[in-house]
Design brief:
10 helices, 39% helix, alpha/beta, globular, 17% strand, eight-stranded parallel beta barrel, 241 residues, binds SN-glycerol-1-phosphate
Length: 241
């Protein structure tokens, strides 16, 4: 599969909204993949993201192979670490945690990843990853040892996103954190969207169709949902094609 980014750009130009279902290899059992993916296939989801903050070596590859057996949707790695890179997926969000100041997550892990990426055909999509405070400590915060940006400091959030774009990143991802108690506020999404020419991803704490639509309306081009589907697969019924 090629042209993942081109497809995102084309969708943005047409005002078509995208939805990624996030699957954490640490939480998904192989025997439940087939049933779960059949629900994804019947929903409006356009992408499957695979990744987590703390995933054991080899787990991601086995899971991606299993998912591939059941869907034609593009599978994009959303890796918390270099060990999650596998050629079995179609693409990878090459995330730089630009809200933080930990050199490992800004550039260090990326240097480490290159020897693995060289041997793959993955489409690499440079992504500015911005963690925004949601009230409780997220696993990204804990693992990366960085502080999220404050919700009320919209100026810094906007400037961070724009700096990412000016550095040549192709996507900006506003992250409230997996299982966040509050999704990113719509005013933050719309202010950031106004700054950017590149597609905007929003994720973390989105649990209802209303919240999903509000994020789209505010300017998110692609929304990522993981926990809500993990906790209640009937949510897919509300999102049928
Ligand atoms: C987490 O943005 C993703 O990295 C999705 O978050 O699990 O809260 O949907 P949820």
């Amino acid at each position: 599969m090629s042209g993942l980014y081109e497809h995102m750009i084309a969708a943005k130009a047409k005002g078509e909204k995208l939805l990624a279902v996030l699957i954490d290899p640490d939480k998904m059992k192989l025997e439940t993949v087939s049933n779960f993916i059949s629900k994804v296939n019947q929903s409006v989801a356009t992408h499957i993201f695979v990744g987590g903050s703390e995933v054991g070596e080899g787990t991601t590859e086995i899971l991606v192979e299993e998912i591939k057996k059941h869907t034609d949707l593009p599978i994009i790695l959303f890796p918390g670490d270099v060990i999650q890179i596998t050629d079995k997926a179609d693409g990878i969000l090459f995330l730089s945690l630009i809200s933080g100041r930990n050199p490992d997550y800004l550039i260090g892990k990326h240097v480490e990843a290159v020897s693995k990426l060289r041997d793959t055909t993955l489409e690499v999509i440079p992504t500015g990853y911005i963690l925004i405070k949601n009230g409780k400590q997220t696993s990204v915060e804990r693992v990366s040892q960085t502080k999220p940006l404050k919700r009320d400091d919209v100026k810094t959030i906007k400037n961070t996103a724009k700096a990412g774009e000016l550095l040549g990143m192709k996507l900006i991802y506003l992250e409230a954190g997996s299982g966040a108690t509050h999704a990113i506020e719509t005013n933050i999404i719309s202010k950031v969207m106004q700054e950017l020419n590149i597609p905007l991803i929003v994720g973390g704490g989105i649990r209802s169709k209303i919240e999903l639509e509000s994020a789209y309306k505010a300017g998110a081009d692609l929304v990522v949902i993981g926990t809500a589907f993990e906790q209640d697969e009937t949510f897919f019924d509300e999102l049928k094609k």
